[in-house]
Amino acid sequence: MTDQPYSVAIVEDHGALRIFLRDTLTKLGWTVTGVAGTAESGAELVLTTAPDVAVVDLHLASEGGGEGLIKRLAESQAATKLVVFTATTDPTELQSVINAGANGIVLKEGGLPELIDGLNAATRGERYVSPSVGGLELPQA
Description:
Blueprint: E1 7-11, H1 15-27, E2 31-36, H2 39-49, E3 53-57, H3 65-75, E4 81-86, H4 91-100, E5 104-107, H5 111-123, E6 128-129
Parallel strand pairs: 1-2, 1-3, 3-4, 4-5, 5-6
Helix pairs in contact: 2-3
């Protein structure tokens, strides 16, 4: 469940996961502002709907991928908190996305409970990293 009614955008290139997240988060009380499958359409979605938080797949099959999207949104000074939802466990890659402006990293292996924890933390202005990820340097939220 969400701590209160927050809005979320979903940027994920796998269609079935994108729809699952949309439907599940809606059932849990989140307002889904939209879904996108590329970094380009994700940037447009986030910048036009201004959700409280966005779920971003790190390895989007598009120019710049998820990290490029996060950099673009961070540079735009959008107020949306950015939570990366990824299968990647490479600490160098994960540190890079934190440095780019992500507010949290949730490993897909942690499933929906960890994603909800990460989204809730981001809406409270906190950083979140899946418990199984270690050794990252986190700037203040």
